[in-house]
Amino acid sequence: MPPRKKTRGKKRPVSKKSANQHLKVGLALLFLLVFLIGALVFLGQLRSRLLPPPAKVVPVAESVILEAMRVEIESALLRSGASMEGLEIIAEGGRTRFVVVADFPAAPLLDNLDRRLQQISADIRLEIRRQQGEVAIHRGETLPFLLQFRLPPPLEPAGKRPRLAIIIDDLGRDLETARTLAGMDLELTFAVLPGTENASRVATLAHRYQREVMVHIPMEPLSYPATNPGRDALLVGMSAEEIHRRFHGFLERVPYAVGGNNHMGSRFTENRPGMAAVMQVMKGEGLFFVDSRTSAHSVAYDEARRAGLPAAGRDVFLDNVQDVEAIVVEIRRLVRLAKAQGTAVGICHPHPETLEALRREAGIFRREGVELVPASRLLVR
Questions:
Q1: Where are the domains of the chain?
Q2: Which of 1-10, 178-187, 292-301 is predicted with the least confidence, judged by mean pLDDT?
Q3: Do 256 and 207 form a contact (C-beta atoms < 8 A)?
Q4: 20 to 30 Å CA-CA from 276: which of 31, 118, 136, 286?
Q5: Could you tell me which residues are beta bridge partners of residue 164?
Q6: What is the pTM of this model?
Q7: Could you give the CA distance from residue 244 to residue 282 in angstroms, rounded to a whole number?
Q8: What values do phi and psi take at 347, rounded to 5?
Q9: Dihedral-angle region of residue 311 (phi above 0 means left; psi in -120 to 50 means alpha; beta otherwise)
Q10: Distance (Å, rounded) from C-alpha 319 to C-alpha 322?
Q11: CA distance 73 to 285
Q12: Is the domain covering 163-378 a CATH 3.30.429.10 domain?
């Protein structure tokens, strides 16, 4: 029998049928790949059409500048006599328009606003359009703010309804207490200590709740230095320049302030040169002054009137005794005083007992026909 031939290592010829199968599989894989790529492209285009365009991101520095400008503008409007009820703020794309029901502001107030805005950024300028009743506030080539003034309606004849104001002193330490006071259905006036850790937050909170804000000005008491009136307090013997410097610092820490009253100050308010310097800077800022009358010999009210500032004086301290019943008695005395003389100003502090007494007596003003108003409504001008 002849030997067999060896076939190891020799390839079998590929059949035509097998080659066709491989080709079909390859084409199928290629088709699947093209389909997946097309689907991904289609989904990407569909997503871009359905989703809103990404919001324009404002650089942090720019947003900070615009917010600082807004604070200065709103503060100036309130100091000019505009009320929150007569102020409409309209956002229009990249511009904010303020519609103000008030007389067109006087030149000194506009000059002061221009100066304070220039301190934020040197490329800010005011364009006064007095005939149109407008103030355009430019920053470089942009117009981020426009103020439009509308004449208020004629005043109705004054009625005989008595009015009173309640000023809450020493605010700025506790944000929660300030929030509680702002949430009360009472037109309270917030006096914020500039040296406290939450001064700016409390002032901003009060403004958002449409509560009037004042600077609670720390001044030297008779018991100084045993009693500390607070950070950067105004002291007897300071130069007018130093008083002005410190007061401008107060305003930086208490935004939206439209007036001020003294914190302590039983010695400083007896000092005519010091109080004259205070009134000079307050007049330049368009503020009013309320004399807390911590001294029977205070000259603060007289100096305010001498300088031409709108001013008022405290009639009653409501919480010298920190007892709820005692404070209720003083609130009722303030109401009787307002009814007797037409107006009255009370001052109190954010003690828990005071808050409870205010809650308890919240309805007395309506029952007695007395209107509770911001302090700025009771000024001698």
A1: 60-150, 163-378
A2: 1-10
A3: yes
A4: 118
A5: 344, 372
A6: 0.80
A7: 9
A8: -125, 135
A9: beta
A10: 5
A11: 13
A12: no
